[in-house]
User: Which sequence fits this backbone?
């Protein structure tokens, strides 16, 4: 089991944070193009899930999780900020929703509560980066 990478997008679809740990395959695209493709896929998947929902187009608790043969992605619940997080993991990773909540908590503590950080731009906080690394490396699915 492994945790591959993390994308955090702001409400405008800009990737404001990216981190990878054990990413075994690269896309071969410039990062900016990869970010655009990932965000477009999120929008498409959310739309598809809402259309299939049994509750008038609502996704229970506002979050979406899906699995493929390669990865699992978790998106934090919709918030007024429009923040979207994507965590790619091995499909057999356990406790991924709790891991995403831990990363989100680090975001709230280090970014949201810091009025000096502009979330419309790339996050340059060493404190946040180290907190994310701590949360991920403490998880049972983390592989060095």
Assistant:
């Amino acid at each position: 089991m492994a945790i591959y990478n993390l994308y955090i997008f702001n409400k405008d679809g800009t990737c404001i944070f990216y981190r990878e740990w054990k990413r075994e395959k690269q896309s071969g695209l410039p990062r900016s193009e990869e970010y655009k493709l990932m965000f477009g896929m999120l929008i498409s998947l959310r739309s598809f899930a809402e259309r299939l929902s049994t509750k008038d187009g609502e996704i229970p608790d506002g979050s979406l999780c899906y699995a493929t043969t390669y990865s699992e992605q978790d998106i934090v619940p919709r918030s007024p900020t429009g923040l979207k997080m994507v965590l790619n993991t091995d499909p057999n990773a356990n406790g991924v929703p709790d891991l995403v909540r831990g990363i989100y908590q680090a975001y709230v503590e280090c970014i949201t509560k810091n009025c000096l950080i502009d979330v419309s731009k790339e996050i340059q906080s060493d404190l946040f980066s180290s907190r994310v690394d701590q949360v991920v490396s403490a998880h049972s699915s983390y592989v060095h």
Summary: Residues 3-137 form a domain with the Beta-Lactamase fold (CATH 3.30.450.70). The longest helix spans residues 31-52. The helical segments are 31-52, 96-112, 126-137.
